[in-house]
Amino acid sequence: MALPTHAEDFPGWYQEVVKQAGLAEPSLARGTMVIKPYGYGIWERIQRAVDDRIKATGHENLYFPLLIPNKLLEKEAQHVEGFAPEVAVVTHAGGEKLEEPLVVRPTSEAIIWATYAKWIQSYRDLPLLYNQWCNVVRWELRPRVFLRTTEFLWQEGHTAHETADEAIAEALLILREVYVDAVEKVLGIPVIPGRKSASERFPGAEETLTMEAMMRDRKALQAGTSHYLGQNFAKAYGVQFQGRDGEQQYAYATSWGVSTRLVGAVIMTHGDDKGLRLPPEVAPYEIVIVPIYKSDDERLRVMEALSRVKVALAGRRVKVDDREQLRPGYKYNEWELKGVPLRIELGPRDAAANHVVVARRDTGKKETVGVDALAERARRLLEEIQANLFRDAKDFREVNTFTPTDYEDFKATIAAGGGFLQGAWCGDPECEAQIKADTKATIRFLPLQPEQPGEPCIHCGKPGTERATWALAY
Fold first, then answer.
1. Last-in-domain residue among 219, 240, 270
2. Looking at the DSSP assignment, which residues form a beta bridge with residue 258?
3. Domain range spanning residue 414?
4. pLDDT tens profile 369-425
5. For the whole model, what pTM was predicted?
């Protein structure tokens, strides 16, 4: 089945790519998904990239339960209010009504901070630098596979610190050295780090840091967040410690997470009208080999050559597509759809000449490479593809970043398809809300370091206090 084009139907294109590339499919319960092996292979590569960086910065993994006593969640009022519409509650189990309902975790601050109260007694117990890989449940009104699902996979870090400065530094460290580094270097997605406005912050946070990416339909995607929580959760759950001065103090907190939404980000950042284009670092297979033959004699010669090719590519993630019932052309199209970075074609003439034909998924270019030179050439091509996909996505973002001259220009730009719109904002939440009501655009980020724009607010004309970037968003 042919894919819709980006230009004609981007949402339809996305759904068909997810389906036809065998990434995932909707499951029986509303808003849930089955992640298929190929889609899960992408997630595993993302997991490894993020987890390696989390551990390299001194954090350890642990695990907390899925079910949370409702009374715990209710202790932090702002947190509860923020998640109330999304919370799933267990009221019956074992054939009986529970005395106290259990919440299926939408996030784990409540149970973790109730536990930290037992673990933290002195400043010597700090910092606690922990992360968990798990699933969470949030009752989404408009689910979309990978982007917004009722149940999704993620990691959530939860740290406790002696001082506010340490906690703020932690939130920045995770954003820059874990998330931005992994997403740009492995997923090949250019992101801009920044701060959320007060209305867009995580419930209960003092500050929410974000990294925002632009998708091929010019909408923004929040690719990951890192929150400075201040002492809010420590006070709600009684997490106190004896300070260096002998006085009782409340701990300072952070939390941070990225999820299977990043699989959707890879699809929508790099895909083209033929399907996926996977950066080699995140691809389940870096290379697919398609042997080509018509007779038993040709098959024998091609398979002998194939053994030499496999030796040359030892250490690479290689898939040999030797399905007898399918023609080579069908296989080419399928692996283009699946976005494998390099395709190797190996026929009888190639076997006789001890070379192969190598095709790049990102540009479609083909070249003939000797088997003896294949290991080095494949390495260089994969590096070029990784860099090219990142550069292409960054160029697309820059071309679609605008500075409107006034509010009419702002509205016209959004109506014409959007992008990132940069301009001054007065800092008034009512002004922010009116822009959203007029255009559906939201402030995606403010600079990490506040900037005085020196110009009037794009909407109301009052003096600008922040430089903001707006966009339509997922």
1. 270
2. 155
3. 403-471
4. 999 999 999 999 999 999 999 999 999 999 999 999 999 999 999 999 999 999 999
5. 0.96
